Amino acid sequence: MTGSSLQAAEPGEPREARLLVPSLMFIALVVAAVGSLGTPLITSVATTFHVSLDSAQWTLTIALLSGAVATPLLGRLGAGPHRRATILATLAVVVAGSALTVLPLPFAWLLVGRAAQGVGLGLTALMMGVARDHLPEKRGAPTIALISVVSIIGAGVGYPLAGLLAEFGGVRAAYGLGLFVTAIAFLAAWRSIPVAPEGRSAHVDIAGALVLAGGLFLVLFLASQTRLWSHHFTVAAVLAVVAALLLCVWTVFELRSKTPLVDVRAVRHPAVAGANIAMFVGGIGMYLLLTLITRYAQTPHGAGYGFGLTTFVAGLVLVPFSVLGFVAGKLTPRVRERIDAPLLLAGSAAVVGGGFVLFAVARSNLAELFAAMGVLGFGVGSFSAAMPGVILAATPKSETSSAMSFNYVVRSVGYSLGSAIGGLVLAAGTDTGHLLPNDGAYTTAALVGLAAMAITTAAGLALARRRSHETTPAAALVGASSQGRPGR
């Protein structure tokens, strides 16, 4: 398999098929970049709309919340006969939300627009389902791997562009970028996304969807509101108990339902469960390091450390993350021919751990931050590219979107907890009377992240040992399961 196989069309392939791969990649990149637009614009939003930084933070939080809640619902709809209509309708919602962020409306409408943009985060798994159904395996496998990668590195693409536009054209210009690219993504989907194969059915468990939405909302809300834990601990603890109860009730509903929103029994498969655990813990560590580096780079010199970078220049620190993440995503399918996917997960987690070590011991100049961010990007890219292979090897083709949607919900929760843990550790390292944490707090946070990646590495190794008894390392990255596919 060559890296160019992603773009090279088969001889005599219809024009629609030739457009499919770049369209899937572009849509996944756009929804990831637009969903992360709130990150570099928080200060600009606070200034433009005359709201507090805590209120402006909701432009990011609400997108993550709506994305996590919408993902399992879209995954189930994507498993049915109306997948194309689901994708187009979702992109239409994202375009409408993008328009709301650009129009001269009050702050509340900006939040509505950001929530609508966040719904697009649930499309990544549907892109994988399309690739698995409509591409030959030799093209489908690397395409799915790169869709997984671009869904993460999209943040690194959108961050510097949004920062640059915000500096020179204001926050509306930055959000205008989101409107422009989402409109193109809608047109690309209209032209290229095929209908789902015949014989599919998908019944949405409305009650289960509502219970899961409530539980996920509370989990992600509590993860994003660190001040609630420090100032109103009792309230936070009660909400945490309610969230746990809702998720337990949802699990019981799903086990009893004939048409579950997520096939919980399939999720309990050792390979799938292990992969989701690795995604959860690994997501905590990966997002923790990403936030530590970007926050450190923007810390004013007056703190005794940091570089006082502007939003745009700080966004450039993410360029190595995106570039090396994409490189890793291109290389992983070829490496996957020799190394089993769970072992790749373990190795990728170890690489991210190396990024934590580098940040903990060397961050006195920008070159060291660029290096740490590059190591993080390479580790995250290879981890993301290997993850679908572990899950889809035990998943029927018809359940691709649903299975990967659940994995992305797990990832979202892990990312949110990683951000929250970083905030809590840095807050604990802030001396009384000071606004900024001391330099040692960053080292402590890095050690916490290193522990998370050590657990993730161990989980990957455990999966690899188990799988070595069940299958050969030559199993295909995607579609290795005999379920849902006629024999050749």
UniProtKB/TrEMBL annotation:
The answer to whether keyword Membrane applies is yes
The keyword Transmembrane helix belongs to this UniProt entry's keyword annotation: yes
Annotated localization: Cell membrane
Q: Which organism is it from?
A: Catenulispora subtropica
**What's the main place this protein lives?**
membrane
* Membrane topology term: Multi-pass membrane protein
User: Which residue windows are transmembrane per the record?
Assistant: 20-43, 55-75, 87-109, 115-131, 143-161, 173-190, 202-223, 229-253, 273-293, 305-329, 341-363, 369-394, 406-429, 441-464
The domain of life for this entry's organism is: Bacteria
Q: Where is the Major facilitator superfamily (MFS) profile domain?
A: 19-469
* InterPro entries (UniProt xref): MFS (IPR011701), MFS_dom (IPR020846), MFS_trans_sf (IPR036259)
UniProt-recorded name of the protein: MFS transporter
Q: What does the UniProt keyword field contain?
A: Membrane, Transmembrane, Transmembrane helix, Transport
Q: Which PROSITE patterns match?
A: MFS
